[in-house]
Design a protein that fits this description.
Structural class: alpha/beta
Number of helices: 12
Strand order of the largest sheet: 3-2-1-6-4-7-5
Strand content: 5-15%
Shape: globular
Oligomer: single chain
CATH architecture of the largest domain: 3-Layer(aba) Sandwich
Order of helices and strands: HHEHEHHEHEEHEHEHHHH
Largest sheet: 7 strands, parallel
Amino acid sequence: MNTKAAQDTRSSGHGAGRLRRIRVVLINTTHPGNIGAAARAMKVMGLSQLHLVNPKVYPHADATARASGADGVLQRAQVHTGLGAALEGCSLVLGTSARLRSLSMPQMDVRKAAEVALGEPGEGDVAVLFGREAYGLTNAEMQTCHHLVHIDTNPEFGSLNLAQAVQVVAYELRMTALARHGAARPPDDWVPVDAGQMERFFEHLERTLLDLEFLNPAQPRRLMMRLRRLFNRARPDQNEINILRGILTAAQRAAGTAPEASDGGDDD
């Protein structure tokens, strides 16, 4: 049997095409070789969108060497100075992390995360965040995520390097994509909101709560973190976010603090 031909046939299927929406986002990667190894892991599984946020060294010969033929993924990689830019156009954000018992956020294993990612409606991309080699994602970065994703490892030795983690996630995404042909779709009128719009909503919400003196300006983070969890869990669509922004603007007008040019919708 021609294995290469069989692989090409499978890769051209409708299911594998869903993988084009997946962004692998590497944050503050220290070793350029890990970027190359991650690119190799992506190409093997049919992923093509690599985004780098403040890599310590890039481009670099070690990245090219470790890519082992996945040069195209590296050449198309986008480098950003902040996470917000890397998430523009993404309607769903997943963050990889060790299982956390101290942080009350939605968490799921990789297989379930792949189902959620590939079932995402609309045309926005889906971002999967991978943090620093030494300590992963920061709390602030986790709060940009709709869900945290953990790889179920041996509890006595759960050490995965960055490229291994990318490989595990990419494999589950590919297997799920190939199995999803003909899967049920959410309603056509549900248009998800991208990450940039959600951040602007959270900024508007915080300003309004401060204007109404509901939020303690000395300690705004705790309440805002809970509200972020609430709205990320609810996944408001485009119409709903416009309604929420309108409510916030109406509250600001009642308090006499609304910007004169505000129309109650998205600022952009």
